[in-house]
Write a structure and sequence with these properties.
This protein folds into two domains: 160 residues, Jelly Rolls (Sandwich), CATH 2.60.120.280; 111 residues, Homeodomain-like (Arc Repressor Mutant, subunit A). The chain is built from ten helices and ten strands.
């Protein structure tokens, strides 16, 4: 496993008397193993930098001091500083060059690809969203540290609890982004768009017209929406439309033709095809499964 800790300094910080540390832990439970890791480290010089480094695991870095430059797994480069969260997506090579002034300090967490895929499905992380600005937040630092300490002392049977704590941390990181800087404006824009798209599932909708109504250019709207939601606006609307169809099947026992009419589909066959693409089974199979 690659050493993601850079040049780890074991010792004591002058401020706060906190010890730098690195912890790796394999948890075995119910016949399965999962990999986890935590570090609280300094990267003080040019030897701390890395180029095109990849891991099979998800690495989440929280910068609490210092500045530098980060290139993500898609090749996008940006300046980073204290308060930024850097997501190293599994398998995708990333580069990091902290400014060699001895100031850089970070927390990092490692989780395996199974966990990262689960969090991606929930929309909490994405390979296209690799740098998240939340500001330096003591409560976030405490969450990183608590997870690290739990790695040291936990029983293997508590692996699910560890995953839950990291899940909660990712939720707080996303909330922190919404509270911090430009994240507020973008999150408000996306929330408004989601509400409008959900309100138009029973008829036609124009995404360019929606962007115009929200006061933003179509291309920027599409990119911001996908970055936050993980789906294009039109595809998000399709999913909400199918959500409504499932409700009509379960709650009102409507037929395919009735649902197609209610939600503005051209015909029941178009509805059935889209339903199966999103849900993975036909409306008839869904009805049988739901009783």
């Amino acid at each position: 496993m690659p050493d993601w800790s850079g040049h780890v300094i074991i010792g004591t910080m002058e401020a706060g008397k906190s010890e730098f540390k690195t912890i790796y832990r394999t948890v075995a439970t119910r016949g399965k193993t999962t990999r986890w890791g935590y570090g609280y480290v300094a990267k003080p010089n040019e030897g701390s930098a890395y180029t095109d480094r990849a891991s099979d695991d998800l690495i989440i870095v929280y910068v609490v001091r210092g500045t530098g430059r980060f290139t993500d797994g898609l090749g996008a480069a940006r300046a980073v500083s204290a308060g930024d969260v850097l997501v190293h997506w599994p398998v995708r090579p990333c580069s990091l060059a902290p400014k060699p002034d001895g100031d850089w300090i970070e927390h990092w967490l490692l989780a395996d690809r199974v966990f990262s895929n689960a969090m991606a499905r929930l929309g909490l992380i994405s390979a296209r969203r690799s740098a998240i600005s939340i500001g330096v937040d003591a409560s976030i630092e405490e969450r990183f540290s608590a997870i690290g300490e739990s790695l040291r002392v936990m029983d293997d049977r508590d692996g699910d609890l560890l995953a839950l704590r990291l899940h909660e941390l990712l939720v707080e990181i996303n909330r922190g982004e919404r509270r911090f800087g430009a994240g507020d404006a973008e999150s408000s824009l996306v929330s408004a768009a989601c509400r409008r798209l959900a309100d138009t599932v029973d008829g036609p909708a124009s995404i360019p017209e929606l962007a115009d109504a929200l006061g933003v250019g179509y291309e920027r709207f599409r990119k911001v929406f996908r970055r936050h939601v993980g789906l294009a606006p039109a595809e998000y609307r399709v999913h909400r439309r199918v959500d409504r169809a499932r409700e009509l099947i379960v709650q009102r026992k409507l037929t395919n033709r009735e649902i197609a009419d209610a939600l503005g589909y051209a015909d029941q066959f178009t509805f059935s095809k889209q339903f199966k693409r999103v849900v993975g089974e036909s409306p008839a199979a869904f009805r049988r499964r739901m009783g």
